[in-house]
Please model this.
Amino acid sequence: MGFTLDIFRYDDKIDAEPHRDRVEIDQPTTMTVLDALEYAKAEVDGSISFRRSCRSAICGSCSMNINGTTGLACKTPVSQVLKSDNSVSVDPMPNFQPMKDLVVHMDPFWDKYNRLKPYLQPADKDEDHERERRVSPEDMKKLVAVANCVMCATCYALCPVVSVDPAFAGPAAIAYAFRFIEDVRDSKRKERAAQISDDYLWLCAHCYACSYCPKHVDPHDDIIAVKRATIEEGLTNHAGPRHALVVAKTIKQTGMLHESEVVQGTVGRFNIRGLLKQTPMMIRMVKAGKLPPFFLKPVPKVDEIRTIFNTLEAPTL
Amino acid sequence: MRAADEAAERGADVAIVSKMHPVRSHSGAAQGGINAALGNREDDSTEAHAFDCVKGSDYLGDQDAIEAMTADAPKQIVWLEHRGCIFSRMPDGKIAQRPFGGAGSPRTCYSADVTGLVILHTLWEQLERFQVKVYEEFFATALCVEDGVGAGVIAYNMRTGELELVSAKATIFATGGLGRVYAKTTNGYASTGDGMGIAYRAGLPLMDMEFVQFHPTSLKENGVLLSEAARGEGAYLLNKDGERFMFKYAPNKGELASRDVVSRAEWTEILEGRGVDGCVFLDLRHLGREKILERLPQIRELALDATGKDAIDTPIPILPGMHYAMGGIATDKFGATKIPGVYAAGECACVSVHGANRLGGNSLLETIVFGHRSAEHAANYIKSVGSVRPSERTLKSEGDRINGILARTGGERHSHVRKALNAAMSDHAFIFRNDKELNAGMDALRKVREAATTMTVQDKSRTFNTDLIGLLETEFLVDISQPIMLGALNRTESRGAQSRTDFPERDDENWLKHTLMHYKGKTSDPEADYSRKVIFTKFEPQVRTY
Model:
């Protein structure tokens, strides 16, 4: 019985620096972190600020950092996150500017959606259909996981690429792009793939941080699918897709990663300036005796590897 | 959002004022589905849907409005589908439908158990499409009425702490429910009846407020909803002896009787000692893992999170919980109120299509149908209006009021007043009601409303002051709770969700009329008015059994 909430406190109109408050909660640890915050606000300090509404993990409001990792406060029992000193620390989501206590400025996150033109754009006219458009259960099932996204921004807060490059669309928006790209009723697959490529789709480093999703959407799966779609749509004139394709190509040819070929393929074989930029690294590699060979002999039984490639229906990625 | 989408499609200059981002709306928590007589699974008709609504309403619903809603339902579902809504499908590619309580046909269109969420997202996508301006995290505090005509609202910008005048030729309230008047509710923290409170204070009557729906399956731990879709897919309700008790109360429909009937049955079982720890059980086990994971994954997870029990192999303890307000701002069947230029749609409105008891799957439908209808009406109305120039009078008085609240000292914290309000409502105006309890409830509310005049906040900041918002919400809750209690006290009959132990019968001779409640000031009882009669078209009152 009883624990401490260790709360980040800050008001962006008043405070130069944040501080922390420790609030004793004389309640059982079976309660959720959100219940604990509500209790602290109602009984101890009414100025503690956070967003919340549904308390059933569907409105997406109460995403915050809990003991250093992001999640929905309403879905996190205190008992599961209690630290050895019997406390739980709560902080605003990273990758956002704090506004007040646990409330952050969300606009950059919503802007990423706005750029998607996130609404259905069918090829045919609504009037052509007396009733609903027919969609097979199988085609609809592709959208079931992403339909559960509550836009809580947990994945966006957890994404290390967003933290270094805020122009990156981020996992949530890419998942929402996937929602339309994979919708058989939509007609803008190529345009959508192009737009999301321009929003630095290929910066995703596949670290799987976003695979932790309170709603089991797993936007990482969707990121892979969207990358696949951009290649299928022939949008390969980016370093990202070139890299993916050349890696696959050299493995198919030689059974190994042909590193010097990969560098040329990624930068562009005729991109003289880009290739010259690699020269200092090459010189350092030569000095260290680590320069990879320019010609690679295929491994024994490379045919088996090629068979794997040929067997897979999916395009090379 | 349905209203804004319609207005935008019609080329009107439209904006949304909302205390939350639109996708945070509590409509997203609706799980089970939305009714429309598409007939995708079995033959169905909009007349059959209308009859089920009328019977479900215990003959208090206005039949012209019900017929309009059920006739419009299939068109609105198609509208949503054409705009990309992710409905579950049948093998032939049509929208899937499931059985729901009180319905004569499997009529409830769904998307697993996240139907509200997918519809909410579709509506938001259309806002994006038309680039509708959203005043996000603006908390509306008052309606501007100039020369008897609606002229916009006053809203508090939560980010800057500034009060702003949003002028408009037409204002549509789509502000949702009031679950937070009760201690335990399936509703989110945001469901504080703000729109009802604003309209009520501006002189619009609230209608049929005594009719509060208690949902049969809410979790004991936190009041969170487990969808009726569970019973629609075949789940059982069991008492402590493992008996499927519903057939004692509804011999034909069993678990799929309408919600008022099921909630009363559960509460009777519990009161008569056949519950366990004040609960009965929702049993999904026989549905099997595969069906539960495909059709009801969210409710399985909600139960797992709150109770640690997996519905795949354990019955879940549940009890009736406050879920929905059948009452609200009195409107006509176009969503119009008696103030020109002011409309209401959805849970905050009372048309009335739900009468004394709403059927599951009709709340999402009401938001869509009447969002559309009110916007259509308003779009025509604004063509007849010149310019509106609301005076700064209301802006000034609201500004003074809020400054006064922030400066106030000495009174009780609003969170404590809220608790007293919740206790009064849950103790005295729950499922079973009687004269003595309701009179005690009125006395308790009179004390609460006195305390509310001096309640205080601790947060004096102008940045995202949720303490202030909480106080303003509590003020609305206090105002709109009194029409509930008084309406329940005055109505000496049992009809739908109003169940009087001292008047156990329905009284069609005296009570086929709506309750209208008028605001008479912060510390006065509301004034009741029974001048509005129920509208009948073709369904005569019958004995209601399931």
Chain A has 15 helices and seven strands. The longest strand of chain A covers residues 3-9.
